Amino acid sequence: QLQLVESGGGLVQPGGSLRLTCAASGNRLHYYAIGWFRQAPGKEREGVSCISSNGAKIHYADSVKGRFTVSRDNARKTVYLQMNSLKPEDTAVYYCAAGSDYVAPPCSILDYWGQGTQVTVSS
Predict the structure, then answer these.
(1) CA nearest 38: which of 81, 100, 71?
(2) Which of 2, 15, 36, 112 has the most CB atoms at less than 10 Å from its CB?
């Protein structure tokens, strides 16, 4: 079992930054690829980024490329999503999820999900 807890969400003005954290329980985080997803009210869930278990492979949605950066520290059992130049359309509940490295496309099969953290971008 792996439990994931997101934190770091909040209210930020357009153009601002937030760093989300996905903290894992236990000692198995290093086995898993981690995906960040978001869901806005009335919209389908959207994949934001995916980082492989060792951090060597990273993918981003086109909508966040150049603005968001994902990283991980397996020793600290933590994955980060640095979000810069935030836009109102980034407003959503953000989730992290863990799954196998060995699937295509990356982060398409996920076994564990966090509870989500709200990000609101508004002036």
Answers:
(1) 81
(2) 36
